[in-house]
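[step 3/7] fold_predict: job queued, chain A
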Amino acid sequence: MNSLVHHTLVVQLQAGEAERCPVFAHLGYDAADPFALTLTFSHDGHVLARWTLDREMVAEGLLRPVGIGDVRLRPVSAEGLEELRLEFLGDPRADGDRHHAVVFAWAPAVSAFLRETHAVVAPGREEFRVDDFLAEVIDAG
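[step 4/7] structure written:
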């Protein structure tokens, strides 16, 4: 069985008060890190940002608002579309505020991606290999 899942979606990026603009969102899942999803946003061949998110948080974000830190998710309905609103707070800016971006993804596409990850590692069946993690930390030191 394949332990990797990848999907590429066209999502809508809204930075500040600007209009939404389409960008690619590359969603990734690797059973070797079963709790995490990766999101890489790109436009015109350039990587705009990379984020690692908790898989369960993304699933919950499709149903209700979640997140209190740098990432906040919630379902929204707009113009007949069911979307997942992903809000990202980044590094501080020179004016003391923080970089801020909102991404809107088509919720059924995110749900389909999650279903594929659940087929690889079912929720509640994730394993954390403490020995492997400690070996990595020790080797990095």
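[step 5/7] annotate
The radius of gyration is 16 Å.
Strands lie at 4-15, 21-30, 36-43, 46-54, 71-78, 81-92, 98-106.
exit 0
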